[in-house]
User: What shape does this take?
Amino acid sequence: MTDSNSENSSKIPAPSDAGVSGIQKNTQELLVISNNASGSISTSPITHAFEVLAANTPQQLGAMPPLVVGIIQENMLEKRRLDAKLNERETFISTQNQEIARLRESNAELKTALNAESRTKLLRNASITVGMLIIGVGFKFTDKQETLPYGVGLIVLGAVLGAFGWFTRAAKEVA
Assistant: This one.
């Protein structure tokens, strides 16, 4: 029985009186974010701390640090994926906001053009109607030789009013 105890005691390291083994690393190293040359994700300070802790005290922690490191790395990957998705959505929202602003500006221009058109529509319709009536009266005056100059004058005046009504548009055209 003493032989087995002596064999077991030789395999188990004796703890130091100070409670430290002297192989601990500087705490500043735990805060460094490493970047792997293979292009994989860089580790977070927490992941790095668990890796250092697992490397320095494997007997005390057992298999827990790799599991925690894996969970943290999975969470970091998910966070990066969600950040990328968020950036994509923010870009889309920004593009849509710009489109909305452009459409609002276009809408304002169209409303202005519509208001201008409705203001001049009555004047144009009235000048077409009055111009055609004057042309009709002018033809009545062309029946007699003595009223011919008045008839021609009325026909010309009616044609000018009709042309004004037909060819006058609102002050601002929208392309």
